[in-house]
Specification:
Elements (H helix, E strand, L loop, with lengths): L28 E4 L6 H9 L5 H7 L15 E4 L5 H10 L27 E6 L3 E10 L4 E7 L7 E7 L6 E10 L6 E2 L4 E15 L8 H4 L4 H5 L9 H12 L35 H7 L12 H14 L3 H12 L20 H7 L10 H18 L4 H10 L8 H11 L2
Helix pairs in contact: 1-2, 8-9, 8-11, 9-13, 11-12, 12-13
């Protein structure tokens, strides 16, 4: 049914049961990637726990663009007990403290702008803005006023709008799974903490006036080609590339540009005091594409939109891509059968109306939206994996039949695990 070659192996009998916490590796080690390896299998080998693969990924981010795509011969650092991710998560997951008010990155342009992306966040695709996974703090790009903190039309319901007071007339947005640390109307300064990404994925970029929900890429029609593919962010946009370049010029992690850039980049943001501009006027969209490694934006046999969100979900919940893809096929044939079902379930992940409200702030009318549905799926699966102690088979069964009657869903779970092993 599913033929998805991928570097992340299917769930084995060893990971269909609750995972015990082994003793940590004694010290950092170096491992040379062999044929058939994945971060999942390497974590199993060194830690006895495949769900610790993000520790290895975060320790090697400088050479791993996509955690599902590692190369034979790569020399990977295997963290010992003090993992790179543990430190990052400790900083990013903690609530704001007295000293947690500004970006750790140095400001460019004589203090006008600061890197808005905090530790713990990993770059994803450039689309209408720039996507980031992981959990961590986000900061004000520049001085300005908060125009919004919530918009139900976005996955996760988060939309922090910031009107810059630099004379440029620009608005910035921080959207999706983000918890605000500011209020509408509040004045902020460059580098000030304004929110925390909670782990489901965020998007940052240029917002359209009045900074309450629309992107400049959408307002100028740069998302039209993506909309024709069923995903407004299917292609990178000029506004997205521009914002990615700005983040890079401030010392932050730029996004991954894949595919033809739609539309031209906007003019550079005016810099005061003769300071450095955003740097994008010195780099064309074509150069940005060449400078960024191409992402694995599709899976063989899987529609491109489904492939993107399957990979996003797999990273967010720590399950193999093959298993998530198999579940997507069983639920909706990769989004080709959105429903509603006889019980009223809708969307790529087939949520019931009464279940949707517990895992998504968006209205149920958005259940057919890939981004909104995947955000809800991530929230539900993370809860079920925690509830089951990491038992993938049990979590899948509960997804189908509910936690109180999870045994009734074992046939569903076994079908997915069997399909994923093909």
């Amino acid at each position: 049914m599913i033929t998805i070659p991928d570097h992340v192996p299917a769930a084995s009998a060893a990971v269909r049961h609750a995972v015990s916490e082994p003793a940590p590796a004694p010290a950092n080690q170096t491992y040379i990637v062999q044929a058939g390896d994945s971060l999942w299998s390497i974590a199993q080998r060194f830690y006895g726990n495949p769900f610790k693969w993000p520790d290895i990924y975060h320790a090697n981010q400088s050479q791993i663009a996509d955690p599902n795509a590692i190369s034979i011969g790569q020399a990977l650092t295997i963290p010992g007990s003090g993992t790179a991710r543990a430190a990052a998560n400790a900083a990013s997951a903690a609530p704001a403290q007295a000293g947690d008010t500004s970006s750790p990155a140095s400001a460019q342009a004589s203090g006008q702008y600061q890197n808005p992306i905090g530790p713990g966040l990993t770059p994803g695709r450039v689309d209408m803005g720039v996507d980031y996974g992981g959990a961590g703090p986000v900061y004000a790009l520049g001085h300005g006023t908060i125009t919004s903190v919530y918009n139900s039309g976005w996955p996760g319901g988060g939309f922090i709008g910031l009107q810059l007071s630099d004379g440029s007339g620009r608005y910035v947005y921080y959207a999706e799974d983000i918890s605000p640390a500011v209020q509408v109307g509040q004045a902020v300064t460059a580098g000030q903490l304004i929110g925390h990404a909670t782990g489901g994925g965020i998007e940052v970029g240029w917002a359209a006036p009045p900074g309450t929900g629309q992107t400049m890429a959408a307002a100028t029609g740069q998302n039209r080609a993506g909309l024709a593919q069923g995903d407004p962010g299917y292609y990178p946009t000029g506004y997205g590339v521009n914002f990615s370049n700005l983040i890079r010029s401030l010392g932050g992690p730029a996004g991954i540009v894949g595919g033809p850039v739609q539309g031209s980049q906007p003019a550079a943001v005016p810099a005061r005091d003769g300071g450095q501009r955003d740097g994008s006027q010195q780099e064309s969209s074509a150069q940005a594409v060449q400078a960024s490694p191409p992402p694995q934006s599709s899976l063989p046999g899987v529609p491109a939109t489904a492939a993107y969100y399957i990979r996003q979900a797999a990273r967010a919940i720590g399950m193999p891509v093959k298993v998530v893809a198999a579940q997507s096929y069983v639920e909706s044939s990769y989004g080709q059968n959105m429903g509603p079902s006889v019980t009223g379930a809708q969307g790529p992940w087939q949520f019931e109306p009464y279940t949707w409200g517990s895992y998504s702030p968006a209205p149920f009318s958005m259940a057919n939206n890939w981004s909104a549905s995947t955000s809800a799926y991530i929230n539900l699966m993370n809860q079920l994996l925690h509830w089951s102690g990491g038992n993938v088979r049990m979590a899948l069964a509960a997804y189908n039949a509910g936690q109180g009657n999870w045994q009734a869903g074992l046939g569903y779970a076994d079908q997915i695990l069997s399909d994923a092993a093909q």
